[in-house]
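Usage

Read records sequentially. Each one opens with the input sequence:
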Amino acid sequence: MPELRKDPITGGWVIIATDRARRPSDFFRERVVLKGAGFCPFCPGNESKTPPEILAYRPASDRGQRNAPGWSLRVIPNKFPALGIEGELNRQAEGMFDKMNGVGAHEVVIETPIHGETLATMPVKQVEDVLWAFRDRILDLKQDRRFKYILVFKNHGEAAGASLEHPHSQLVALPILPKQVVEELEGSRRYFANKERCIFCDIIQQEMESRVRVAAENQDFVAISPYASRFPFETWILPKRHESAFENSASHVYENLARMLRSLLLKCVHLLDNPAYNFMLHTSPIQENANDYYHWHLEIIPKLTKTAGFEWGTGFYINPTPPEEAAKFLREAAIEDAQTA
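and closes with the structure output:
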């Protein structure tokens, strides 16, 4: 029988459609296939075709160079930004409606110079460098008093919204708090006010005791299929030790996060036939980056189903794969890769 499950953090409901239970091979998906043809502005040698770099990681011998080949990672402004960096917010009312200038920052992290690499296949150290770039840019952008939240996300594959196939992720600094972030913060605050404990820490403890929704684990992180998963094979990576802001984590944490992220994505490649996916970093707002009630985490969502009229009309999601089954498939997926050991 189908189940209605309530998200303990936001209070939202999802339908786990157990009658439609699907194995990894049962989904119709748009498989990510590398075309590799044509001009790519992110490839080495084309630095003049992108906006000037904000940050680049280079060997010590090349650190005096800018906007030239020799980099292992580059961060550039998005050529077609969702928000513009210049100007003031200028909040206004238009009758009963509110508006402000579209001020923010929109940046692209070019994760590797190799066009055909992915986070699932590149060396662990390169994945770790991507995470360090997120941290470096968050620390810089949070100094701008106009911004309230910095969203880090990745679209992998055309079905997930990627317009270029060269591996990249994005950061957007926003002058307002996104609704989903507000819902998570409010739910976390309520729980902490009642129990004086972090709800995410309690989820981690319960899931590690029961093990049924644990997909992977290492020294610093646990990956779970959340109890009220909105999407099949939705996976959260959570630090075992409480930390409210991603950028405040200890140095060794980024290496173990890189290993965990790479391993899970490689399992998705093998188990789900290289699906498109999104991941989003959920972290505390800039003004609240050290607190006891929120817990940063990374959410990975493979694009295996489509959002349709029922979801838009109700705000409920229908998930045809119970998270217990998804976690079991991920946990037992065999991958031959020494780097994730």
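Summary fields computed downstream for this record:
- Residues 3-340 form a domain with the HIT family, subunit A fold (CATH 3.30.428.10).
- The first helix runs from residue 124 to 141.
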